[in-house]
Specification:
By secondary structure, the protein is of the alpha+beta class. About 35% of the residues lie in helices and about 25% in strands. It has a single domain (about 5-130), classed as Alpha-Beta Plaits, CATH 3.30.70. The protein is built from 3 helices and 6 strands; from the N terminus they run E-E-E-H-E-E-H-E-H. The strands form 2 sheets. A 4-stranded antiparallel beta sheet has the order 4-5-3-6, with helices on one face. Strands 1-2 form a two-stranded antiparallel ribbon.
Length: about 130
């Protein structure tokens, strides 16, 4: 896994998000031939366009896991809006089985952060700042 820090003019960061989200009504859309492949292609295009690195991506029959490396200016809600919005529009246009759906994805999602150190390590580092002198 790529745990190198991202650098901009004003920031140095390592922000990795783990997202999980589902189609509306937990429909098993990834059982439809070619949808998983097309979804992954679209997600790669969207992420490249907005400067996000995909560390891992996998689809199950009724949900998606994404592990993304992002800049601090990109909020989880912004990222989900971009990925879900763009992929929903294209997939519903390209696949007859999805055409009748008013929206493809639920509004909800799971997100968790992950870096290269544990919460315990960060707490110990902060606690030691006073005694360091």
């Amino acid at each position: 896994m790529n745990n190198k820090y991202l650098r901009t003019k004003t920031t140095v960061s390592l922000i990795n998000y783990h997202f999980v989200f589902c189609p509306r009504y937990r429909r098993k859309i990834f059982l439809i031939p070619d949808i998983e492949t097309r979804f992954k292609e679209l997600t790669q295009i969207i992420c490249k366009k907005i400067g996000i690195e995909i560390l891992a991506m996998e689809c199950h029959v009724d949900h998606v896991h994404l592990f993304l490396k992002c800049l601090p200016t990109q909020s989880p809600s912004e990222i989900m809006k971009m990925i879900k919005g763009a992929s929903s529009h294209v997939l519903r246009d390209e696949f007859l089985q999805l055409k009748g759906m008013s929206s493809l994805w639920t509004r909800s999602y799971f997100v968790s952060t992950a870096g290269n150190v544990s919460s315990k390590t960060i707490k110990q580092y902060i606690d030691m700042q006073k005694v360091r002198g």
